[in-house]
Amino acid sequence: MEALALLGIAGCDRVGQAEWFRKLLTEGEHLNRTVHKTLLSRRTMAQEFTEADLSPHFRSNGTSNPENPAYQALAANGFRDWILKVEGMVDKPLQLSMTQLRAMPRRTQITRHDCVEGWSAIAKWSGVPLSHVLNDAHPRSDARFVVFHCGDPMEGPGSEFYYESIDMDDAFHPQTILAYDLNDRELPIANGAPLRLRVERQLGYKHAKYLSRIEVVSSLDTIRGGKGGYWEDGHGYQWYAGI
């Protein structure tokens, strides 16, 4: 799927409308699923780099400053009142402040971000492993997916705010983190402050920004259009974007 990063010079919206692109994504998803199931372990680690490899700039993909009054109020207060909710099919729903998240076990990784718009960049991310948060919430045995609800409003029917999802294999992968620092500094608003998802073996649109709520579910059927994400529901992108 790395070849997809060469596509979309005109941007995600215009490319996503093209029928040839939708067919290519469908074929690519089928191929990726086959490869990952037959040749690769879902626990395979994404390549990590050194600080010498860091890109000089990590651009903002998608929204760079949410036009959302509630989000802007939180940002104006330095996100001191921001809370991450973890709910759904869990035995212990959580409400976590940034102070609590920063007190949890921390993982730092230098990885490459591959965007379907046609660019890549290497950056250093720090945050709490999603697995740690989920273990604290105690997902139920029949839980299959983790849905990320975000603070950036989007256009289109049935998609008031950005949302994405991953399965439990990706959710418990050691490189899947809830990142609060970028290159040893607090995550900027343009890159998803105060918290964003890093799921390093997936393309950029899976890396949800401006997180506000995590929902554990058994099915994606009742989440908006039922395909698991904003781009998947409205623009023909495929849910599995493994690289």
TrEMBL record:
Xref: PANTHER family: BLL0505 PROTEIN, PROTEIN-METHIONINE-SULFOXIDE REDUCTASE
Source organism, top-level taxon: Bacteria
Name under which the protein is recorded: Molybdopterin-binding protein
InterPro entries in UniProt: OxRdtase_Mopterin-bd_dom, OxRdtase_Mopterin-bd_sf
Residue intervals of the Oxidoreductase molybdopterin-binding domain: 80-218
